[in-house]
């Protein structure tokens, strides 16, 4: 593993994994390795997911045999979809114990099915001369495979016979490294010429981290509007950046108005948080050239891309910058003014009483410049998409591949492991789901401020058609759990604050404690009404504005 | 589902599963159905596992799409190995949203690989005339398949398009039921004749519930010794029942002494809790006829069975009883006396000071006659194997298929759902692992007394070779979590007791509260020494006894 360049290991204790973890602990003495121990494999795997999301490098999960390995399944499904290179090392019983009733011997071969892109099982105890060379090569190959596009988890299965205690103090083997090769493509010059001067929009989706500064620089230099997903990490107070496009297209049918319809959309990044924006793409695709750039494994569930460019994004951005790609100035101005209008409405509206809607804005104004903000599914990320303006120095994270509400606490803690200013915005249900994840904060003294919006149940469901099934709603969807978060804080040694208004929330954010739970009590019915009222007012405002500015 | 005979449903809320759960809630009005709602799918699946273990009938798990479905993986692996007929209903995004970046759309086809024995995906919204008949038939077939030997979980995947709200108040469809067919075989008469009068032992492993009374009656009537695994549920104060065979063969090599070596072992049930007994089988197999009876899918990881009989156990027991199978009386007497000797030693020894060793005996003496006792892996089930005598009216449970320490609380609660006297013996680490499971006790007011042996970490590892890796032991294996169980009890509304000696443990067991956590603080090093001391004394005693009674 060391030769493959992995530095971070999340280990869940067990017996079968003994040879691997003992040797790792031994190697950690003379090598720059980070070993994390987490007894709950589900939490451990999401924690590793968070580490890798943060550090942009492969990390290894190591567990013992049996259901320990199956506990990883959810985080692996998430990693597959959010393209995180988890290297999953499952230790196993030897072949001669399979299928014959031996304890703790489940079938671990290709355990994660299509959620891992590659699989090997090494019988390290085979008495064959070439085994060491083979394993050295194959380990590097599979770790490299995990990092190649589409980035995805891989599984290495290691069956071990007893005795499980390895020999210590042996020398590290000398090994040859495999070089990673990057493919390079140049874009057709004609293609760039054909774009320039037309009504252009850049769409920056989630996970454009590796090139977000270059993309923003292009937009700013060339005055091209950027529709910025909350997870793009491009959001900031810059005139070209549109942070409220979801609000616009949700409340006004922009696709019908040719004044606001782009000729070309250049799309970067993954699946958008904003469903209305996705629907807008579908509505305009017959009249607009929608170019999907390589990222996200070329996937586009909106089926609106009518052109796909398989090229390194940085190369493309560089070429577009050099060639001086421009957009039609009137179109840019019109679109940005519309966005500005919505921003004004929002500012006025949010001077009203304290509500869930206000939280993204409060956090935006009061969190440190370089905060890591982890957003839970499902309401927090949506509210942030709508009401968060952003700072370029901040990083926003979310498990937005499989969109689970599981493992959120652990993933946030993984993200937080090497930083000091970390925040998690989460609902009561998702926090409960991965409450065990808090143990890692306690054991490793990790810094995290958790803002839990406690509306006692699943807030998202009030917005969905299920809300009409009143008879079953609370039992099947609302599912109030009546959790006492003060007790939760006590159990894990967190400080606890209750915030019933804006001033209390701001005050509790600014206390110097580094492990806090701030509970904001909310009400699902009121929250639904707040969102509806906001949208109704905006709808009116947008219609008037467009009518008067035609 | 109703037509397939399923009565128990464990539902984890979500959006995609709306059509199924709403219709179920509607049907529950006029049908005798039990719906449980558990927001944590991992806990939910283990809870369902427990329900099915208790009720001996298939239960359905229902979840939404995405990682929710992967959360079931561990309980399904356990169910596969412990032969529990879980019917796993995963709702899914429709085909047209797969592999193209749609949110929450993971690949759910055959998600659990070889841990489910059968799989179907129904497109219920297909506009084909025969779809209703097909689904009705296929659902009954797959639920029946789950219950046939080898009993195993099955997956039904249900992709749904929006809108997700079903039509209510429609009539139940009229459906034809499929009849289950039992195969019957008669045993060769010669075979039975050949067994009678020889040195016979019956070995009753785990999960012989369906015929444990008949098996015990046979042994009692014919004076055949029964080596009773703690999970056989045959253990009780009856002269033929040997409850301490693990202690005997661990401390004295019985295989070398022909006085104590049976000619024939008739083996029922699954993989034994006792590893020393398994090793004893391996040691005697060249000179002993070891007959493996159908159960447990014919599996025998000891590879010691030299004969396998594929027959219904009840039929076999009935035939053996009718034909008057006997054992050599001197052999029976000799073996039972040896066991009695060990029991005497144990009684004398356990008058010493309070220790983990004493707990099974204390529970045996002070729990109600009809208690359900759930044993966690990994130390509790081992200590019970050694130190629990038993009552025929009690039921002992354990997740002893994959032997995980995950999901133990939820499984125990599932077992407890329809009974009042329920007990869980568990270590601190396993309790932490599935602490979320306690939410079900709170929500459904389930009765459970948890005796948690808190030795602050993984007690089992002190007994394994890893204990020699002193430098890494606490970090990698001991893993102390410093959990405050008083806080845990407060969080979930349990009463909390601390028991530092025998009297306190007995007193706390007898309080009338129905949701309790009783914490017994222990020490891993002392516990190891206690076990070693016990064995050393017994070894001496056994050697003397056998020498003097040759």
Automatic annotation (TrEMBL), chains A, B:
<feature type="domain" description="Menaquinone biosynthesis protein MenD middle">
    <location>
        <begin position="169"/>
        <end position="375"/>
    </location>
</feature>
<feature type="domain" description="Thiamine pyrophosphate enzyme TPP-binding">
    <location>
        <begin position="385"/>
        <end position="509"/>
    </location>
</feature>
<comment type="similarity">
    <text>Belongs to the TPP enzyme family. MenD subfamily.</text>
</comment>
<feature type="domain" description="Thiamine pyrophosphate enzyme N-terminal TPP-binding">
    <location>
        <begin position="5"/>
        <end position="111"/>
    </location>
</feature>
<dbReference type="InterPro" id="IPR012001">
    <property type="entry name" value="Thiamin_PyroP_enz_TPP-bd_dom"/>
</dbReference>
<keyword id="KW-0786">Thiamine pyrophosphate</keyword>
<dbReference type="GO" id="GO:0070204">
    <property type="term" value="F:2-succinyl-5-enolpyruvyl-6-hydroxy-3-cyclohexene-1-carboxylic-acid synthase activity"/>
</dbReference>
<dbReference type="InterPro" id="IPR011766">
    <property type="entry name" value="TPP_enzyme_TPP-bd"/>
</dbReference>
<comment type="subunit">
    <text>Homodimer.</text>
</comment>
<dbReference type="InterPro" id="IPR004433">
    <property type="entry name" value="MenaQ_synth_MenD"/>
</dbReference>
<keyword id="KW-0460">Magnesium</keyword>
<keyword id="KW-0464">Manganese</keyword>
<dbReference type="GO" id="GO:0030145">
    <property type="term" value="F:manganese ion binding"/>
</dbReference>
<dbReference type="InterPro" id="IPR029061">
    <property type="entry name" value="THDP-binding"/>
</dbReference>
<dbReference type="Pfam" id="PF02776">
    <property type="entry name" value="TPP_enzyme_N"/>
</dbReference>
<dbReference type="GO" id="GO:0000287">
    <property type="term" value="F:magnesium ion binding"/>
</dbReference>
<keyword id="KW-0474">Menaquinone biosynthesis</keyword>
<keyword id="KW-0479">Metal-binding</keyword>
<dbReference type="Pfam" id="PF02775">
    <property type="entry name" value="TPP_enzyme_C"/>
</dbReference>
<keyword id="KW-0808">Transferase</keyword>
<comment type="pathway">
    <text>Quinol/quinone metabolism; 1,4-dihydroxy-2-naphthoate biosynthesis; 1,4-dihydroxy-2-naphthoate from chorismate: step 2/7.</text>
</comment>
<dbReference type="InterPro" id="IPR032264">
    <property type="entry name" value="MenD_middle"/>
</dbReference>
<dbReference type="Pfam" id="PF16582">
    <property type="entry name" value="TPP_enzyme_M_2"/>
</dbReference>
<comment type="function">
    <text>Catalyzes the thiamine diphosphate-dependent decarboxylation of 2-oxoglutarate and the subsequent addition of the resulting succinic semialdehyde-thiamine pyrophosphate anion to isochorismate to yield 2-succinyl-5-enolpyruvyl-6-hydroxy-3-cyclohexene-1-carboxylate (SEPHCHC).</text>
</comment>
<comment type="pathway">
    <text>Quinol/quinone metabolism; menaquinone biosynthesis.</text>
</comment>
<dbReference type="GO" id="GO:0030976">
    <property type="term" value="F:thiamine pyrophosphate binding"/>
</dbReference>
<dbReference type="GO" id="GO:0009234">
    <property type="term" value="P:menaquinone biosynthetic process"/>
</dbReference>
<protein>
    <recommendedName>
        <fullName>2-succinyl-5-enolpyruvyl-6-hydroxy-3-cyclohexene-1-carboxylate synthase</fullName>
        <ecNumber>2.2.1.9</ecNumber>
    </recommendedName>
</protein>
């Amino acid at each position: 593993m060391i030769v493959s360049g992995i530095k971070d290991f999340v280990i869940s204790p067990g017996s079968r994994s003994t040879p691997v973890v003992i040797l790792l602990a031994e190697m950690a003495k003379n090598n720059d390795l980070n070993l994390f121990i987490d007894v709950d494999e589900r939490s451990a795997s999401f924690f590793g997911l968070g580490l890798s999301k943060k550090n942009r490098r492969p990390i290894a999960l190591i567990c013992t045999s049996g259901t320990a390995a199956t506990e990883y399944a959810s985080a692996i499904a998430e990693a597959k979809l959010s393209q995180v290179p988890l290297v999953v090392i499952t230790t196993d019983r030897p072949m001669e114990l399979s299928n014959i009733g031996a304890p703790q011997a489940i079938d671990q071969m290709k355990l994660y099915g299509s959620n891992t892109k590659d699989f090997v099982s090494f019988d390290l105890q085979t008495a064959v001369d070439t085994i060491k060379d083979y394993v050295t090569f194959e380990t590097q190959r599979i770790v490299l495979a995990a990092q190649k596009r589409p980035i995805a988890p891989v599984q290495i299965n290691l069956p071990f016979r007893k005795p499980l205690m390895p020999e210590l103090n042996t020398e590290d083997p000398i090994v040859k490294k495999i070089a990673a090769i990057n493919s390079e493509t140049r874009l057709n010059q004609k293609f760039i010429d054909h774009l320039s001067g037309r009504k252009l929009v850049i769409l920056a989706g989630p996970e454009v981290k590796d090139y977000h500064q270059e993309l923003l620089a292009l937009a700013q230099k060339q005055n091209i509007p950027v529709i910025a997903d909350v997870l793009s990490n491009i959001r900031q107070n810059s005139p070209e950046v549109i942070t409220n496009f979801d609000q616009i297209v949700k409340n006004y049918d922009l696709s019908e108005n040719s004044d606001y319809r782009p000729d070309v959309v250049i799309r970067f990044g993954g699946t958008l948080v904003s469903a209305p924006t996705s629907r807008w793409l579908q509505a305009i695709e017959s009249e607009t050239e929608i170019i999907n750039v390589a990222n996200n494994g070329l996937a586009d569930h909106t089926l609106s891309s009518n052109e796909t460019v398989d090229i390194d994004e940085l190369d493309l951005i560089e070429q577009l910058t050099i060639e001086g790609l421009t957009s039609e100035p009137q179109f840019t101005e019109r679109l940005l003014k519309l966005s500005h209008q919505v921003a004004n409405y929002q500012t006025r509206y949010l001077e009203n009483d304290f509500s869930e809607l206000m939280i993204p804005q409060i956090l935006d104004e009061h969190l440190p410049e370089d905060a890591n903000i982890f957003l839970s599914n499902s309401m927090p990320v949506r509210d942030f998409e709508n009401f968060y303006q952003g700072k370029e120095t901040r990083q926003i994270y979310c498990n937005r591949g499989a969109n689970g509400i599981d493992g959120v606490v652990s993933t946030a803690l993984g993200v937080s492991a090497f930083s000091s200013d970390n925040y998690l915005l989460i609902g009561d249900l998702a926090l409960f789901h991965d409450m065990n994840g808090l143990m890692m904060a306690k054991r490793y003294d990790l810094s995290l401020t958790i803002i839990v919006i406690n509306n006692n149940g699943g807030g998202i469901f009030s917005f969905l058609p299920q809300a009409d099934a009143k008879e079953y709603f609370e039992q099947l969807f609302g599912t109030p759990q009546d959790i006492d978060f003060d007790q939760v804080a006590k159990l894990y040694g967190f400080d606890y604050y209750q915030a019933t208004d804006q001033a209390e929330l701001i005050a509790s954010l600014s206390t110097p404690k580094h492990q806090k739970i701030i509970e904001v009590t909310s009400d699902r019915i009121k929250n639904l009404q707040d969102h509806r009222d906001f949208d109704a007012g905006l709808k009116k405002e947008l219609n008037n504005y467009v009518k008067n500015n035609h």
